[in-house]
Structures are given as structure tokens and as C-alpha cells.
UniProtKB/TrEMBL annotation:
Residues 8-158 form the N-acetyltransferase domain. It comes from the Bacteria. The lineage of its organism: Bacteria, Pseudomonadati, Pseudomonadota, Alphaproteobacteria, Rhodobacterales. It comes from Sulfitobacter mediterraneus. One of its GO terms (molecular function) is acyltransferase activity, transferring groups other than amino-acyl groups. SUPFAM superfamilies: Acyl-CoA N-acyltransferases (Nat) (SSF55729). Pfam families: Acetyltransf_1. InterPro entries: Acyl_CoA_acyltransferase, Bact_Acetyltransf, GNAT_dom. PROSITE patterns: GNAT. Keywords: Acyltransferase, Transferase. This is L-amino acid N-acyltransferase YncA.
């Protein structure tokens, strides 16, 4: 995608996106940018049909998923230790589409959804070795928390 003008479509993830999302995760793992991948069934349960899901948005070009962003509600005892009632965000962009503005476009849409959902805080947990991920979240308004690798976006009340 580098140096190309292409139309990126953003839309809510659907069940038939599970394999495309899985492909993005596998490409990130192969590139050393993610520890685990996930098959289509795992993607369904973790991102598309998760009971705490607020929204999962895919970015696609020519019918192919090139990235996605997940926003879910932190409930008591969530596996991330995120405070209850906050949002939990995850962003995953195919390496071939990195640094093309896809993440910022996804964030714009996700932040609107977070505001409508009444969230006041959204947390992202990024590996401390992931300089690109830390820079990305900083570029969209997230600030460092007291915990290494955790960034928080404080949202206004609407």
C-alpha cells in the first residue's frame, strides 16, 4: 500500500470478516510485531462476538481486511486489569498497510463510538518493546499511565 492512493473502507466487523482479521494477526506475528495470531474461530470469540464488545471496526481495501480496531467495555475481573467501566482498545494493522494513516482513521471512528457509549477513559496496553505502537497511541491522544506499556485516553463528557 505504500505510496499508493487507494480507497480504504471502514465498517463494523461482521462474522464473515473473521478469516481476514485472522490473516492480519498472522501477518503481524510473522513480522515479529505480535506474539500470537489466532484462527477465525478465536477471532470470532475475542473480537467479533465478544459479550463486552462495544465495536470492532475493520479497514478494507478491495474487499481485503488490512486492519481492525477493537473496543470493548472493561468488566470486573477482565484479563487486562483495566478498571471496570473503562474502554479497552486494540489496534492491528497489516504490516503492508503500516504508516499509511489507517490506524488514525480507525481511531477517529472508535473514539466517536466510545463517546456515544459514555466512556470517560479508554486504555491501551502496548508492549514496552513496541515503539511503533507506543508512538501511534501517543499520536492519537493517549498519555502514559503509571504502568509501563499502558496508555490512557481521557475523554470529555458529552
Amino acid at each position: 500500500m505504500e505510496n499508493q492512493t487507494v480507497e480504504v473502507i471502514l465498517r463494523p466487523a461482521e462474522e464473515n470478516d473473521a478469516q481476514g482479521i485472522s490473516n492480519v494477526l498472522a501477518a503481524l506475528k510473522a513480522a515479529g510485531k505480535r506474539r500470537t495470531a489466532g484462527d477465525a474461530e478465536e477471532v470470532m470469540g475475542h473480537y467479533i462476538t465478544h459479550p463486552d464488545r462495544i465495536q470492532c471496526t475493520v479497514a478494507e481495501v478491495d474487499g481485503q481486511v488490512i486492519g481492525f480496531q477493537s473496543l470493548r467495555l472493561a468488566t470486573l475481573g477482565n484479563p487486562y486489569g483495566t478498571p471496570e467501566g473503562w474502554g479497552i482498545i486494540g489496534t492491528h494493522i497489516h504490516p503492508s498497510a503500516a504508516r499509511c494513516g489507517v490506524g488514525k482513521r480507525l481511531a477517529g471512528q472508535t473514539i466517536k463510538v466510545a463517546l456515544v457509549a459514555g466512556l470517560r477513559h479508554v486504555e491501551a496496553q502496548i508492549g514496552t518493546e513496541n515503539a511503533a505502537g507506543l508512538a501511534y497511541y501517543g499520536s492519537i491522544g493517549f498519555v502514559d499511565s503509571d504502568e509501563a506499556g499502558v496508555k490512557v485516553l481521557n475523554l470529555p463528557e458529552i
